[in-house]
Amino acid sequence: MPDPRRPLRIALLGCGVVGTEVARVLTGDADELAQRVGAPIELVGIAVRREGRRRDLDVPDDLFTTDAMALVARGDLDVVIEVIGGIEPARGLILAALENGASVVTANKALLAEDGATLYEAAEKAERDLYYEAAVAGAIPIVRPLSDSLAGDRVTRVLGIVNGTTNFILDAMSTTGAGFNDALDEAQRLGYAEADPTADVEGFDAAAKAAILAGLAFHTRVHISDVHREGITDVTAADVRSAAEIGSVVKLLAICELGPSGEVSARVHPAMIPDSHPLASVRGAYNAVFVESEGAGQLMFYGPGAGGAPTASAVLGDVVSVARHRLAGVRGAGETVHAQHEIVPIGRARTRYHVAIDVDDRPGVLSAVAQAFAANDVSIKTVRQEGHGDDAQLVVVTHEAEDAALSATIDRLRDLDMVRGVSSVMRVEGVA
Ligand SMILES: NC(=O)C1=CN([C@@H]2O[C@H](COP(=O)(O)OP(=O)(O)OC[C@H]3O[C@@H](n4cnc5c(N)ncnc54)[C@H](O)[C@@H]3O)[C@@H](O)[C@H]2O)C=CC1
Ligand SMILES: N[C@@H](CC=O)C(=O)O
Ligand code: NA
User: Where is the active site (predicted)?
Assistant: First the structure.
């Protein structure tokens, strides 16, 4: 247990969008944080990649170092904050921090979803905390509610908008008609996007968060490769218009479900959701996560999901918690993976679909298309024709069906002479 008379020593790894805000609060609000922790806190080092870059921070120059490994290995640290991102060197630094006796706070969802097991095992062995509230949905408290508040309940479903960048882009496309690239540039300028924004727009970031959420919700280990992933790069202005025509909006959703036989599925993809659904009104870089559980029913967590200051808020909350644990000589909850749920592929997921089919504008088309759906046991809810002649299109919305059955339907449609192409297939979520 640390000597209560000495300050708790904190090291910060990475001083980019999030790290800068964390350093600003750790230094500017040190007195208030000390009151909350119950002991003084001291930022003893900041690891950066390059020396001499001008940083808008009022901290002594000698705190900065380009030798992150030497910083974590000094052996007298209480808390190491990792906000570098990516797999390496972040993983090696976190493991070294734990081995050297520090507790760790990280915002690194990519690493947790790729190799969380190694980090948890190291934290367990070192008897230190590993906290990561900022890794999922930025400022929104969702990791703690799932791991603590709902620990006595059975969570059955988590449905969320967990990527600020893609929500910002889709929102701009549907409300101002902005182009994809302009909206992405703006999201990068505002500090929402990952260092490589492909992680956002191709759904990797949301998939990492889905893996973490599913693991926490269902007490089972879920790897990022278990998560079905589709990004938003194929979402067109026509999809956004089609959604509006059925009173819906397009959102990138992360969906984690516990099936009736105990099977777990996790998927990330764009989907249409009705305007009346609370997730439809989540704008800009905001995130929201719905949790359904047997006892509590429906819970919704909403707030800023990205950006320096909101993410720093979650990081600092964790810092205060683990610092309190250090003082008390205790640890918080570790990983709970007692359940051995089967993780099922996307083909077994069940949902509704919106399918736009380019067809010849002639008698018999409707019945041929309907037969393709019926042959795969996919029931049609509505069908309407858009355009005429060369522009004729049938737009079908289905009842709930298995993903594999829908895929087989699309293959069959593509083989029909009267079908010129299937121009869009999008899942429809949030319908009662
Ligand atoms: N920006 C956001 O809205 C959010 C970010 N996060 C996560 O927080 C972490 C940091 O994100 P950002 O601050 O946005 O990224 P960033 O790219 O702005 O900052 C990362 C910093 O780490 C530095 N760095 C790279 N290698 C280093 C090394 N070997 N030693 C020391 N510093 C090194 C880079 O130079 C950069 O300044 C990532 O894991 C990210 O996924 C989580 C939630 C929201
Ligand atoms: N790039 C991420 C940042 C937070 O996790 C996002 O856009 O949500
Ligand atoms: Na969070």
Answer: 209 (proton donor)
